[in-house]
Amino acid sequence: MTITVQVMEETFPVRGVFRISRGARTETRVVTVSVDDGAKVGRGECVPYAHYGETIDSVIGQIRSANTALAKGSTREDLQAIMPPGAARNAIDCALWDLEAKQTGKRVWELAGLAEPWIKETAFTLSLDEPSAMGLAAKEASDRPLLKIKLAGKDDIERVTAIRSNAPNARLIVDANEGWTPEMVLPFSSKLAELGVSMIEQPLPANNDTILAEIPHPVPLCADESAHTTADIERLKGRYEIVNIKLDKTGGLTEALKFRDAILSANMGVMVGCMLGTSLAMAPAMLIAQNAMFIDLDGPLLLAEDRKPGLCYTNAQIAPPSTQLWG
Predict the structure, then answer these.
(1) Is the predicted pLDDT of residue 1 greater than 80, yes or no?
(2) Distance between CA atoms of 234 and 145, rounded to whole angstroms?
(3) Using alpha carbons only, what angle is made at residue 245 by residues 65 and 242, rounded to the nearest 5 degrees?
(4) What DSSP letter does each residue of 98-112 carry, written as one string?
(5) How many CB atoms neighbour CB 196 within 10 A?
(6) Cross-sheet strand order for the sheet of 269-272
(7) Looking at 102, 148, 246, 249, which residue is catalytic?
(8) What pLDDT, on the 0 to 100 scale, is given for residue 203?
(9) pLDDT-based confidence at 67, cuts 50/70/90?
(10) Segment 2-28 mean pLDDT
(11) What residues does each domain of the chain span?
């Protein structure tokens, strides 16, 4: 079977402005891959991330460099050795899963030997802003059961206090995006525990998180930038209680499934997250979401326009993807 690959860049506008500690954006640029066997076409999407040294051009170049191997019949498992983890491998891997589902007439969850996925509840992200503005944003989203709060260090307690006042019934999780210092971890986590925060994501830079094993923290910590693939498990033990799986970091669903099993075997909790992508990027992650403590697959809700057809969101509830979308 000969596989041909097509790759293209697409741009989707963000609803308003999306801010984290490293910057702001008003649009997201994604790379979409189609793999074609002459009869069926599978699709995948990735979001190149500059923080990990990726650009649109570098990711498209990586995908095109894999064309020869795919044309010769390389499989998803072969890609694990041929390509490094990251956005490029993710798009191809997910497209190959989608293609096999179309070739066999089975859903991806059946091919992977998983139980049928069910509707799940996602967090809704409040992007970084001044405390008063974040409080107003929380008031507008106060009917959502789980809010994820982007933080940056300075004024973070004021931010969460304003949000808690305006969304008293919501569960809260926070994401510092590496924006804290070690001296902040204990006092901030103690105060956040009083405010009812359930989880703190990546408080310290990934290259400076060893000290987390020595710092008491009343709120469980979740690794994000520190966690990419199964190879990271041993290093994460003792520092974090939860690990955030993102397919753009693992390099696709194939590695993400192995990573999930390794996290659970290490008695750690699973979170599933996303970059700022469309429903095509979220769809494969719905299979990881079935075993997750926290689900953050709200990318399409943060966009002014999503793909059609996309995932079906009903407030915080996400239904598994249709075959028209993926898998």
Answers:
(1) no
(2) 33
(3) 155
(4) HHHHHHHT--HHHHT
(5) 13
(6) 124-126, 146-150, 171-175, 197-201, 221-223, 242-245, 269-272, 294-295
(7) 246
(8) 98
(9) confident
(10) 91
(11) 4-105, 120-318
Within 8 A by CB and 6+ apart from 7, the residues are: 31, 32, 33, 34, 60, 63, 64, 91
Taking the C-alpha atoms of residue 91 and residue 88, their distance in angstroms, rounded to an integer, is 5
3-class DSSP assignment, residue 65: helix
210: pLDDT confidence band, cut at 50, 70 and 90?
Answer: very high
Catalytic hit among 102, 150, 154, 191:
150
Six token digits for residue 68: 């020869």
Residue 256's closest CA among 106, 114, 121, 65? 114
The average confidence (pLDDT) of the chain is 96
Say whether pTM exceeds 0.85.
yes
- Beta-ladder partners of 240: 237
> Residue 323: its pLDDT value, please?
97
Which contacts of 238-243 are long-range, i.e. CB under 8 A and separated by 24 or more positions? 238/213, 239/209, 239/210, 239/212, 239/213, 240/212, 240/268, 241/268, 241/269, 242/199, 242/268, 242/269, 242/270, 242/271, 242/293, 242/294, 243/268, 243/269, 243/270, 243/271
User: What's the number of CA atoms in the CB half-sphere (13 Å) around residue 327?
Assistant: 28
Residue with tokens 């089975």, as numbered in its chain: 106
Question: What is the Cα–Cα distance from 116 to 290, expressed in whole angstroms?
Answer: 9
Which run of H or of E encompasses 264?
Answer: helix 253-265
**Percent of residues, the chain, with pLDDT higher than 90:** 92
% pLDDT > 70, the chain: 100
List of E strands, 202-241: 221-223
Domain 120-318 has CATH 3.20.20.120: yes
> What pLDDT digit, counting tens, does each position of 246-292 carry?
999 999 999 999 999 999 999 999 999 999 999 999 999 999 999 99
CA 47, 53, 54: angle at the middle one, nearest 5?
Answer: 30
Q: Which fold has domain 4-105?
A: Enolase-like; domain 1 (3.30.390)
Q: Is 106 a catalytic residue?
A: no
User: Is 72 among the catalytic positions?
Assistant: no
Short-list 92, 90, 112, 91, CA closest to 101: 112
